[in-house]
């Protein structure tokens, strides 16, 4: 009976809040003025013996004559690190002065509660509570430090979790909580104020557990934490929420602003599409199927919002600044929106002299140092573009056929070229609607272009013919797009021949316009020509194809196949894989920052009237084309690099080859480097998965994993839930394949299509995003034809993007191609949970070593004179898959995740 009373006394003592929780030591013996002492910001203060210690002494003295044994307790000390906000160009706020920081902290604290892995004798959780006290601000690493002391009974058992209540009025970013008994809780998470969310936050130790292995004392917390992330699918989400739920893309249009900005819903039978994160905003009054929009960045769960505390989101803030400051400024000073560049030297002036603009607001130059140069005076500044690497090395590279083809293997979009396996080339579209299906590229044209080197049949048999095929994807949109102002479109095919040197040579370009009300189908095949008129038509046909490839690259290879498809993986992971699940901890580095950048894209890039619609040829139909590509082309089982190459005929399975596949084009820089990176990722995933799942039965019996994979297929990618190609999840090999694919898409795939954007497209004649005019020989008037004959250069310049379109795209590409100062590169940082497990730590070190070797291999390949697609006079070396990079636009570096 007496022991019970004593234990109750201790419990009450632990529950009592400190009167002045930020004052070091015994709060009852310090004056309030000590809380304001500047010294506490600079150095830890001396901690006196706690109240708990004295309580034990007092209690013990009262029971000296009693023989019942006393239940002793151990003091466990905890250190909590909190990261303050960083200076933000978006919000225009900073950390503030030291005094401001202190005043914000006074009078508030965190209530912490340790949870044992074991239940007590009555089957209830064993917990110990304590308040944290403010200790110091460490200027060197820019974190606030708090400390707390827990009186832990000796029979408490192993500590497995900690509950946190934030008594501030604002959310706080917890980095980690470290106990002096070598237990760490890696948080890296926002904790909402209890006034915004009264539920205590749950954090688990760095030790990973499969669901079946969860200690008894943590089982209910494991499920409760995931339930808190799922929400109930109701209401509008608040910035303090951590809710992960699904919705269709019904927020790209703005019908309330203008009916011309209404857009169809992406997701569902009409327009299949992956799902996005639900925000719950009200529906439009003018279109009940569309969600209203906001001027602020769209909701993302609070743990996805790193903009206040991570410099890696420098890119997001810079992109926001470009979209909301630079782009409107350019729009304002270029009054004629249709005006093109009169001369090629006018284009060169963008890099030599720049564009004079009104001086930007304070902070913009800091965020965009490459673009916004020093002000000439107090009134004006200059937006001046850096010379892209392709043009810096070879001014005329964009003009040459060999570079046109080389960039399909070692450029910005190496994901579309495919082997020609059937002849003749035919469309699969309805001939009653789109005209004759047969391609105009005939056997005679091919054999004439390869000059009798071999027959067409030999070229097919020896796998020498390759193609870019945008015919069937674009043809349904040609007539609709041509009704828009200032753009045109064709269905297109580009045929190429693999030469004995391993390089590609273009043979023919076919452009097709389907029938319309008053015109039959128009189709023309262009070939490299040796007469002046034919040569200029060929150059203009290449410009049309490049505009198609640019749109496909941005909409499909980049946005759809990386940003867009990753979001359902992120949502499902947070809804179904616990913090302590090893697969969640494996995948988490590949998910960071993606939802935040995707929300920004929905806000101002892929939305109605946004950058994509206003600067790429398909205009308002861009996202519908993206939906069609998802419906017709996207398959999860083709997203791994080897499977992607095989599906395009660029490789065949070969167990005797180093990567299990043999490349059809041996000198394919993207594939050569990518396969080394893929192998390293898969080997790392193999070691990791086999450690936690030594038997296949553990995979099948993992309820969290089963629910995760089921929801990805049936909800996140629900429009494809009945496809037969989805991998099963029954064995370790199944799981390795799935997680390796997800890791590859977020790292290698995204880097290959993102970080070379400025180098290859910053000089827009090399990769025009827009073809504004039709081909000169498509039903021309006499006046149009004579104008082309007299000044063909003018016709090409008019076809290129306008001045406003070009400068806007260049500004955006500059930011998208940049690495932040603290970019998190693949293999560069070991997660605490990995380091806590010796076998996983060793596997990660092996992974890191493989990536370091890859750096050297890529360097040696780029100086190998036998590799003509990556080494030669004036060529930009292919280094997009070099794992590591410095900050800025470097044309290399593979971050863990899609952070820009």
TrEMBL record:
SUPFAM superfamilies: Lipase/lipooxygenase domain (PLAT/LH2 domain) (SSF49723), Lipoxigenase (SSF48484). The keyword Ribosomal protein does not apply. Residues 29-56, 212-239, 270-289 are annotated as: Disordered. It is found in: Plastid, Chloroplast. Residues 87-205 form the PLAT domain. Its cofactor is Fe cation. Residues 45-56 have a biased composition (Low complexity). InterPro entries: LipOase (IPR000907), LipOase_C (IPR013819), LipOase_C_sf (IPR036226), LipOase_CS (IPR020834), LipOase_Fe_BS (IPR020833), LipOase_plant (IPR001246), Lipoxygenase_dom_3 (IPR027433), PLAT/LH2_dom (IPR001024). Its EC number is 1.13.11.-. GO terms for cellular component: chloroplast. PANTHER family: LIPOXYGENASE. This is Lipoxygenase. It comes from Lactuca virosa.
């Amino acid at each position: 009976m007496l022991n019970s009373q004593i234990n109750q006394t201790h419990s009450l003592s632990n529950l009592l809040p400190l009167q002045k929780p930020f004052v070091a030591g015994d709060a009852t013996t310090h004056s309030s003025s000590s809380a304001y002492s500047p010294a506490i910001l600079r150095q830890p203060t001396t901690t006196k013996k706690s109240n708990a210690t004295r309580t034990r002494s007092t209690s013990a003295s009262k029971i000296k004559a009693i023989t019942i044994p006393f239940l002793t307790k151990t003091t466990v000390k905890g250190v909590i690190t909190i990261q303050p906000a960083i200076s933000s160009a978006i919000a225009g706020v900073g950390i503030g002065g030291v005094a401001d920081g202190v005043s914000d902290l006074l009078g508030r604290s965190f209530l912490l509660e340790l949870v044992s892995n074991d239940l007590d004798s009555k089957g209830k959780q064993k917990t110990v509570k304590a308040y944290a006290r403010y200790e110091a601000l460490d200027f060197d690493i820019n974190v606030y430090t708090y400390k707390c002391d827990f009186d832990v009974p000796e029979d408490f058992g192993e500590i497995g979790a900690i509950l946190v209540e934030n008594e501030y009025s604002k959310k706080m970013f917890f980095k980690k909580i470290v106990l002096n008994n070598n237990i760490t809780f890696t948080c890296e998470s926002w904790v909402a104020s209890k006034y915004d969310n009264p539920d205590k936050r749950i954090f688990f130790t760095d030790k990973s557990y499969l669901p079946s292995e969860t200690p008894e004392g943590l089982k209910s917390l494991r499920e409760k934490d995931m339930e808190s992330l799922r929400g109930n699918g109701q209401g509008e989400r608040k910035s303090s929420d951590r809710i992960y739920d699904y919705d269709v893309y019904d927020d790209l249009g703005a019908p309330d602003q203008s009916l011309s900005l209404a857009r169809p819903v992406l997701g569902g039978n009409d327009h299949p599409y992956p799902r996005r994160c639900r925000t719950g905003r009200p529906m439009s009054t003018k279109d009940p199927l569309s969600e209203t929009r906001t001027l602020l960045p769209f909701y993302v769960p609070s743990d996805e919002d790193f903009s206040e505390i991570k410099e890696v989101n420098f890119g997001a803030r810079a992109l926001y600044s470009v979209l909301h400051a630079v782009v409107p400024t350019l729009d304002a000073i270029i009054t004629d929106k249709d005006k093109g560049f009169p001369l090629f030297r006018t284009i060169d002036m963008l890099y030599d002299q720049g564009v004079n603009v009104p001086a930007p607001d304070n902070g913009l130059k800091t965020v965009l140092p490459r673009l916004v140069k020093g002000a000439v005076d107090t009134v004006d500044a200059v937006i001046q573009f850096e010379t892209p690497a392709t043009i810096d090395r070879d001014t005329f590279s964009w003009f040459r056929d060999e570079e046109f083809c080389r960039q399909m293997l070692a450029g910005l979009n190496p994901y579309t070229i495919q082997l020609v396996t059937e002849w003749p080339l035919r469309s699969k579209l309805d001939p009653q609607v789109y005209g004759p299906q047969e391609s105009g590229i005939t056997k005679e044209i091919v054999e004439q272009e390869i000059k009798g080197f071999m027959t067409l049949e030999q070229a097919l048999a020896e796998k020498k013919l390759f193609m870019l095929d945008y015919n069937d994807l674009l043809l349904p949109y040609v007539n609709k797009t041509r009704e828009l102002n200032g753009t045109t479109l064709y269905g297109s095919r580009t045929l190429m021949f693999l030469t004995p040197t391993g390089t590609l040579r273009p043979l023919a370009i076919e452009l097709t316009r389907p029938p319309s009300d008053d015109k039959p189908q128009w189709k023309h095949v262009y070939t490299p020509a040796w007469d002046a008129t034919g040569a200029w038509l060929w150059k203009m046909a290449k410009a049309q194809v490049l505009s198609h490839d640019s749109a496909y690259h941005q909409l499909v290879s980049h946005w759809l196949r990386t940003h867009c498809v990753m979001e359902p993986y992120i949502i499902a992971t947070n809804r179904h894989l616990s913090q302590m699940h090893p697969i969640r901890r494996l995948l988490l580095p590949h998910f960071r920052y993606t939802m935040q950048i995707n929300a920004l894209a929905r806000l101002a890039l892929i939305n109605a009237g946004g950058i994509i619609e206003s600067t790429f040829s398909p205009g308002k139909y861009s996202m519908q084309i993206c939906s069609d590509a998802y419906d017709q082309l996207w398959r999860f089982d083709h997203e791994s690099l080897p499977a992607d190459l095989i599906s395009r005929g660029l490789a065949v399975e070969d167990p005797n080859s180093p990567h299990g596949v043999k490349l059809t084009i041996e000198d394919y820089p993207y594939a050569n480097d990518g396969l080394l990176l893929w192998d390293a990722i898969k080997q790392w995933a193999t070691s990791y998965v086999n450690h936690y799942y030594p038997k296949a039965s553990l995979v099948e019996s993992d309820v969290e994993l089963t629910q995760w994979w089921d929801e990805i297929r049936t909800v996140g990618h629900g429009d494809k839930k009945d496809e037969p190609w989805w991998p099963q999840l029954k064995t370790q090999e199944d799981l390795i394949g799935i997680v390796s694919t997800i890791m590859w898409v977020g790292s290698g795939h995204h880097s290959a299509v993102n970080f070379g954007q400025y180098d290859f497209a910053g000089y827009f004649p090399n990769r025009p995003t827009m073809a504004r005019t039709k081909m000169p020989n498509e039903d021309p008037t006499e006046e149009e034809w004579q104008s082309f004959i007299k000044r063909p250069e003018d016709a090409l310049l008019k076809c290129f993007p306008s001045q406003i379109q070009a400068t806007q795209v260049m500004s955006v590409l500059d930011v998208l191609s940049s690495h932040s100062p603290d970019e998190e590169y693949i293999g560069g940082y070991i997660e605490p949970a990995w380091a806590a497990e010796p076998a996983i730590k060793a596997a990660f070190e092996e992974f890191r070593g493989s990536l370091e070797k890859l750096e050297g291999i890529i360097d040696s390949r780029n100086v190998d004179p036998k590799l003509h697609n990556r080494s030669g006079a004036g060529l930009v070396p292919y280094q997009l898959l070099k794992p590591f990079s410095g900050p800025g636009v470097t044309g290399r570096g593979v971050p863990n995740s899609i952070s820009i």
